[in-house]
Design brief:
Length: 112
C-alpha cells in the first residue's frame, strides 16, 4: 500500500467520529506518522512505512498505550488488548478501516 492510500483510509475511517478533535500528520519520503487527537485529551497514534510495510496504531491516554494494533517483521499482525496492552495477540491481516473500527469499539467501552 502506498502512503496516499494509507492516509486516505485513516481520514475516511475517522472523518465522522464525533469524538475526534483533529488529525496531525507528518509525511516523509516513504513513511507517515501522526495522531488522531480526541476530545478527551487522548490520541490514536499511527505510523506506516511503505517501504517495509510496518504499521502501528496505539491509543495513548495519560502518556501510556492502553490499546494497539500493529504489523511488523518480528510478530506479524498483532493486537495489544485493552486488558493488557503489553501483550501481543496474533491476528489476521486487517484493513486500516477495520483497525480503526476496532479502536472505536474499544473507545466506546471505556467512554460509555
Amino acid at each position: 500500500m502506498d502512503l496516499n492510500s494509507f492516509l486516505s483510509e485513516v481520514f475516511s475511517a475517522s472523518a465522522n467520529l464525533d469524538f475526534v478533535k483533529n488529525i496531525d500528520v507528518n509525511t516523509e519520503i516513504f513513511l507517515t506518522k501522526g495522531k488522531i487527537n480526541l476530545l478527551d485529551g487522548s490520541f490514536l497514534k499511527f505510523y506506516y512505512n511503505s517501504k517495509t510495510n510496518v504499521l502501528s496504531f496505539a491509543w495513548i491516554k495519560e502518556e501510556k498505550r492502553i490499546w494497539g494494533f500493529d504489523s511488523d517483521f518480528i510478530k506479524g499482525w498483532h493486537l495489544h488488548p485493552l486488558e493488557n496492552p503489553n501483550d501481543h495477540i496474533a491476528q489476521e491481516q486487517h484493513s486500516i478501516s477495520e483497525i480503526i473500527s476496532q479502536f472505536v469499539n474499544v473507545y466506546y467501552l471505556i467512554n460509555k
